[in-house]
Design brief:
7 copies of one chain form a homoheptamer. Chain A is mainly β. In chain A, 11% of the residues lie in helices and 49% in strands. Chain A has a single domain, classed as 10 Kd Chaperonin, Protein Cpn10, Chain O (Roll), CATH 2.30.33. In chain A, strand 6 and strand 7 form a beta hairpin. The longest helix of chain A has 6 residues. The radius of gyration of chain A is 13 Å and the shape is globular. Chains in contact: A-B, A-G, B-C, C-D, D-E, E-F, F-G. Chains A, B, C, D, E, F, G: This is Co-chaperonin GroES. Chains A, B, C, D, E, F, G: It comes from Acididesulfobacillus acetoxydans. Chains A, B, C, D, E, F, G: InterPro entries: Chaperonin_GroES (IPR020818), Chaperonin_GroES_sf (IPR037124), Chaprnonin_Cpn10_CS (IPR018369), GroES-like_sf (IPR011032).
C-alpha cells in the first residue's frame, strides 16, 4: 500500500526527540509557534513542489496544520506546502 | 441515475472501519484534524483534477468539509478538491 | 416574465421530497451540511458555466447560500455556482 | 443632474410592492437572504458589466449591501455588481 | 502646498448640506450605509482611475473608510477608489 | 549604517507638530483614522513604488500599521505602501 | 547540518541587544509592533527573494510571525518574506 499525496501535500513521518538532539535542532515547548522534524515519505503531484522536496528529505514543519494518520501503526502527518518551513541537510 | 460533480468536486463513498484496518491505515479519533478513507465514485468536470483522481481510486480525505448525501440508502460524500489529502494505492 | 441570472448565478426550482425518493437520493436532516435537489430554470451569463449546466438539468445544491424568491407563487432559489454540488442524470 | 456610478456599481430605483405582485415575484419577509426588484437608472463604467445590464432593465438584487441615497426625494440604491442577482425580462 | 494622493487614493473636499439640497440628493441619517457628496481636489497616480475621475468632479462617497485631514483649516478626506460610489454631473 | 526597506516598505521619519502647522495640514486627534506627515528616508526595492515615491519626499501616512524603530535616537517608522496616503509637494 | 528554508522563508539568527546599540537602532519595548535585528543564515528557494536578501545580510524583522528553533543550542527564527522589514547596511 502506498499513499500518494494530492497537489501540494506532503506525507511526513515525524522524527522522535532522540534524533532531534543528534541533528542539533531543539524545538522549545514554549516557542510561540511549534515546529518539528520529519522524514518525507511522499511528495504531492505538484511539479514545482517535487523540484524542491524529495522522498527521503528531512524537513522542519510547523505543528499547526496538517492531518495525523497512522500507517501500519506508525504516526504520520499529511502536510500542506505552507506547513513546511525548511529542508534539513547533512 | 448518475451524479456528476461540478467543477472540482468529487463524489466519494466512505469506506467502513474493517476495510481501513486491512489497508494498514488507522485514523485516530483524537487526531486534531480527522480524516477518512473513501472510494471515488465520480470526479468533477475540472480537467486537471480528472488527470489526478480517477473513478475507483481510494482516497484519504479530511472530515471537515464536504456534504453528506444518501444514494440508494448508502452514505456518500461530495467533497471539494481541497478536502482530498491523498490517493491510496495497492 | 423571464428571470435571467447574472454572471455565475443559477435559478433553480427546488424539487419536493417525493421526487427525491424516486431518484434514490435521500438527504438526511442531521447532515452537517444540508443539500437539496432542484431543477435548473435558468443559467447565468457566464459562458463557462453555461457549458457545464443547462436549463432542465437536475442539480444537487447546498442549502447554505442562495436567495429565496417566489415566482408565480412557487418557491425558487437563486444560487451561486459554488452552491451547486453536482448534476444528477437519468 | 445625473449620477454616473463608478466601476462595477449600479444605480437602481427600487420598485414598490404593487409592481412586484404584477410581475409574479414575491419576496418573502422570512427569506434568510432578502432580495428586491429595482429599475436600473445607470450602470457603472465597467465595460463588461455594461454588456450585461442596461439602463431601464429590471433587476433583482439582494438587500444586503448597497448604499441608500435619495434623488429628488425618491429612494435609490447604489449597488455593487455582486449584489445584482438577475435581470427580469418581460 | 499640494497633496498628490498615491495609487488609487482620491483627495476630496466634502460638500456642505446646503449644496446637497441644491443637487437634489439627500442622504438620510438612518441609511444603513452612509454616503456624502464631495468635490475632487486631486486624483491618485493610478492611470485607470485618472481616466474615470477628474479634479473638479463632484463625487458621492461612502462615509465608511477614508482618512480625515485638515488643509488650511478646511476638512478634507483621502479616500480609496472603492469608497467612491459615483460621479455626479450637472 | 543605512536601512534599505524590502519590497514595498518605506522608511519614514515622522515630522513634528510645528512643521505640520507650517504646511497648513492639521491632523485632528479625533479623526476616526489618524494620519501623520513624515519625511521619506528610504524606499523599498519595488521598482514601481520607486517611480512614485523618492527619498526626501514628504508623505502623509496613516498611523495604523507600520513598525516603529529608533535610528540614532530618533523615531522612525517602516511603513507598507498601503499605509502611504499621499505625497505633499511645495 | 544545514537548514535550507523553503520558498520565501528566511533563516535568521537574532542579534543580541549589545550589537543593536552599536548599529544605532533601538527598538522600544513599547512600540505597538515589535521588531528586531537578525543575521541572515539562509534564504529560501524563491529566486526573486534571493536577489533581494543574501546570506550574511543584517535584517530588521517584525517579531510577530516566524517560528523559533534552536540550532546547536542557539536561538534562530524561520521567517516569511513578509516578516522582513529591511536590510541594514554598514
Amino acid at each position: 500500500m502506498k499513499i500518494k499525496p494530492l497537489d501540494d501535500r506532503v506525507l511526513v513521518k515525524p522524527v522522535d526527540p532522540v534524533e532531534k538532539t543528534q541533528s542539533g535542532i531543539y524545538l522549545p515547548d514554549t516557542a510561540k509557534e511549534k515546529s518539528q522534524e520529519g522524514l518525507v515519505i511522499a511528495v504531492g503531484t505538484d511539479e514545482d513542489l517535487q523540484s524542491k522536496i524529495k522522498e527521503g528529505d528531512k524537513v522542519l514543519f510547523t505543528k499547526y496544520g496538517g492531518t495525523e494518520i497512522k500507517i501500519e501503526n506508525t504516526d504520520h502527518m499529511i502536510l500542506s506546502r505552507s506547513d513546511i518551513l525548511a529542508v534539513i541537510e547533512g
